[in-house]
Amino acid sequence: MVTTREVSLDDATTVTHMVAALLAELEGGQKQGRLDTQLVVDLLAMKERVHGFLAFTDARPVGLIMLSESAALFAGGTYGIITELYVVPDQRSSGVAMRLIEAGVGLGTVKGWGQLEVGAPRQPMWSRSPNSALYLKAGFAEIGPRLKLPLHGLAGQRAKRNAAERSRLDPRRQRALSRCIPESSPARFA
């Protein structure tokens, strides 16, 4: 019998191992950087925004779903995002994933989320994945691809690029730009 319960800070090691296994599968066995248990602890401590459920058969953890809360106008307010869903290989196709999704839906209903979203692996991996059938069976509808822009280190790169671009501008254009957008005044919207 499969049971689920919310994750707690005490589950940080189990969450770390399961997410590391998920990431290794998604990357085709290529080893990513080691997942940091302290990062998991920090995220689990964000109890208003980060949520998770573990699935068990007997006392053995066999699955994990992690969700985060977001907000958007298109969603009519708050909504949930499934950030990780993992089931150990020998328990797949046994209903564990569906039980975890049901736990996420229950949480979202209690929290008043307008919808629940999930990102998919890159094509063509997604179309060949049994996960696509799982999510469609659970009632999800495809809404299109998701894109990402990694931000780590991006601010430094942009600052260097902007400085290089400013140095190439002729002095007259630099003065005109500084008059149009004063750096010290906040933008105003009507």
Can you characterise this structure?
- The longest helix is centred in the middle third of the chain and has 16 residues, at 96-111.
- α1 (12-26) packs across α2.
- It is built from seven helices and five strands, in the order βααβββαβαααα.
- The protein has a five-stranded mixed β-sheet with strand order 1-2-3-4-5.
- It has helices at 12-26, 37-44, 96-111, 125-128, 130-137, 154-168, 171-180, and strands at residues 2-6, 50-57, 60-72, 77-87, 116-118.
- Mean pLDDT is 82; it is low at 182-190.
- A hairpin with a 2-residue loop joins β2 and β3 (60-72).
- The relative contact order is 0.10.
- The radius of gyration is 22 Å and the shape is elongated.
- The chain is an alpha+beta fold.
Which properties best describe this structure?
single chain; about 190 residues; alpha+beta; five-stranded mixed sheet; about 40% helix; about 20% strand; elongated; disordered C terminus
Q: Percent of residues in helical segments?
A: 40-55%
Radius of gyration: 22 Å
Q: How do the strands of the widest beta sheet line up side by side?
A: 1-2-3-4-5
Q: Biggest sheet: strands, sense, closure?
A: 5 strands, mixed
Strand content: 15-25%
Order of helices and strands: EHHEEEHEHHHH
- Head-to-tail CA distance between termini: 59 Å
Average pLDDT reading: 82
The low-pLDDT segments are 182-190
Task: Give the class from helix and strand content and strand pairing.
Answer: alpha+beta
Number of helices: 7
User: Could you give the count of β-strands?
Assistant: 5
Overall form: elongated
